[in-house]
Amino acid sequence: xxxxxxxxxxxxxxxxxxxxxxxxxxxxxxxxxxxxxxxxxxxxxxxxxxxxxxxxxxxxxxxxxxxxxxxxxxxxxxxxxxxxxxxxxxxxxxxxxxxxxxxxxxxxxxxxxxxxxxxxxxxxxxxxxxxxxxxxxxxxxxxxxxxxxxxxxxxxxxxxxxxxxxxxxxxxxxxxxxxxxxxxxxxxxxxxxxxxxxxxxxxxxxxxxxxxxxxxxxxxxxxxxxxxxxxxxxxxxxxxxxxxxxxxxxxxxxxxx
Length: 257
Prior knowledge:
This protein is 81% helix and 0% strand. By secondary structure, the protein is mainly alpha-helical. Helix 1 (5-25) crosses helix 3 (45-70). Keywords: Cell membrane, Membrane, Transmembrane, Transmembrane helix, Transport. This is Probable membrane transporter protein.
């Protein structure tokens, strides 16, 4: 047991950092998943992903709760998007066992690059909160975004939180802080759907996942406080940083690995 302690400390630290990043802009899996693969070299990928989701769902839920207490959260957008995301995340998880995802893997870096360029060119992108839709139009667009990103998260996953933030700003006129808050509600739905799938199929290391969940929640609480304290400008900068890292990581995985 003593020889395992360093591994636990590394995973705990990774979960804390992942929770912090995820709470602000998404992308915590960039830290948590490689750490799990490194510390669990004999585990099958599904078990790594399932354990990651167990830790992540607690952190994402904590972030959603904290944001809802301190930011005026657009529930009329968040709830339809979350409902659609939950259903389509299941469909995505089912589809991944039947359809090759190589095309998505190779396309993803270019989509993320387009997101980064668009955000950089539009200097005021996400700086002002000016909601654009109400009523049935708001619900329809929310369902389309939630369903599409939910399916993607179940099918593949990297960058889900960042995509949600970008789309909520682009199609709803939210600022970065409000978009991040709404994205957490949707992320809870996609994570929970995936967690049910992995739990049913026996691909979760429960003790390790729950230990990491505690650290993930701690990081999430700090990340939420930083986002609220420093506002949309801070979220925008971290968003661009995480998207840049995602471009490099997904590009490497798709073309060089």
